[in-house]
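dumping the sequnces here before i forget
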Amino acid sequence: KNQVEQSPQSLIILEGKNCTLQCNYTVSPFSNLRWYKQDTGRGPVSLTIMTFSENTKSNGRYTATLDADTKQSSLHITASQLSDSASYICVVSGPAGKSTFGDGTTLTVKP
Amino acid sequence: DVKVTQSSRYLVKRTGEKVFLECVQDMDHENMFWYRQDPGLGLRLIYFSYDVKMKEKGDIPEGYSVSREKKERFSLILESASTNQTSMYLCASMDRTNQPQHFGDGTRLSIL
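..and the predicted 3d for all of it:
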């Protein structure tokens, strides 16, 4: 069964600190892995998308890594800001476009 | 910028009613999706459509139907609403594989 596991479930950090969110998956075959940010009361917004041949991709202070051999991805947030408080969702898709969503990590950034 | 617009942010309906949720995208995307999002369960796919008048069942289609008469519009229909369909409903569109999905802001539906 295709699964996407995210950890930790929730995280609290101080403004200005860095953090790393984890995503492990069993989806096979693999087409791409996406990270989304979802603010409270809003729809998810795409941060990064990586295919099999890519092992790192950045979007401003967000850097995603992918190890397709171990089926692991991480999202690193640098110099966190209050506006980074949100849920971060990892999504893995197969070639037919079917996506499996993780349950998300809820990040709270405190001043 | 891609814009996906869902017709209502909040909706309250009664058990047994027929409920229509509307979604419109402005980027001529082929693919459109309906999800529901519940705490602890993540996003679950209800239906998707890869072309006008085409539809495919997702993981949890029971109790729902969809309509795609025009490329830009994808409607989700609750034939006879039940309390277990109280949820956040998210619509998304996507150009093609290996591109991100673009989501609307969701409709929070309560069935009383």
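Chain B has no helices and eleven strands.
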